[in-house]
Amino acid sequence: IEVVKSKKGVSLSQRKYVLDLLSEAGMLGSKPVDIPMDPHQKFGINDGSPLKDVHQYRSLIGKLIYLTVTRPDISFAVGVLSQFMQAPQKAHWDAAIRILRYLKSAPRKGLIYRPNWHMDLVAYSDADWAGLASDRRSTIGYCTFVGGNLVSWRSKKQTNVARSSAEAEYRAMAYEYRAMANVTCELIWIRQLLSEFGFGDPSPMQLWCDNQASVHIASNPVFHERTKHIEVDCHFISEKLQQKLISTNFVRTAEQLADVFTKSLGSGRIKTICNKLGMYDMYAPA
């Protein structure tokens, strides 16, 4: 990981690692693309002919996983392709090559950390219910900021299959609450860590979610038969709200930064979110 100091702040990147990866794959002269994964492509277990060199695919995905340390913009795409490590197909290999072409477009991009006067803890939470075509499982994602700087993020596929039924809306909400509960635990851990470093801030930590129903029920927990499956996570969030540890807020989907961790996005959306996550090319000419 390379560290660059400037008047803007401190930047972390894996520039050399990316260039070495492109060179190893023979992709230095490839045509770059502006998104890591095609939003319209759905992956399954039968996506063409099986790869002859399984080790090559596994090695590439493993290296891409390490690259997500400073490149959160590829976290979702790498997470999807890592599900096919056991028996990768040609379509999965082609998608991995696309990620390399995306990295080719900005190999020097990294995370910048600016000195800010505040230490506010803010998080964005999102869930994509049954969005994976291969097994109809859901993906939850979140990102957390301290003082306006990105400090942690996650893109995780759920282990349970989301059943399609008349209660689809409530099951989708269950995954929203699971994502909110996970990021709440993350926020509490970060606050405890900051407290040990002598940075105490009693103000509630802000949790942004793009599901109005989830935000409303968390603030006004009224349960009935159809919401029993979300009671545990919802009670947990409600408890933290009553303790004034967090405050839940609604954010429009167009401004949901956690979207990049739960689904494939278009070029314009990727660029916007990357800017708000604090991802820049510190080597770019001024």
Automatic annotation (TrEMBL):
Instruction: List, alphabetically, the InterPro entries matched.
Output: DNA/RNA_pol_sf
Entry-linked SUPFAM superfamilies: DNA/RNA polymerases
Extract the coiled-coil ranges from the record: none
Q: Which domain of life is it from?
A: Eukaryota
Q: What is this protein called?
A: RVT_2 domain-containing protein
- Record the organism: Cephalotus follicularis
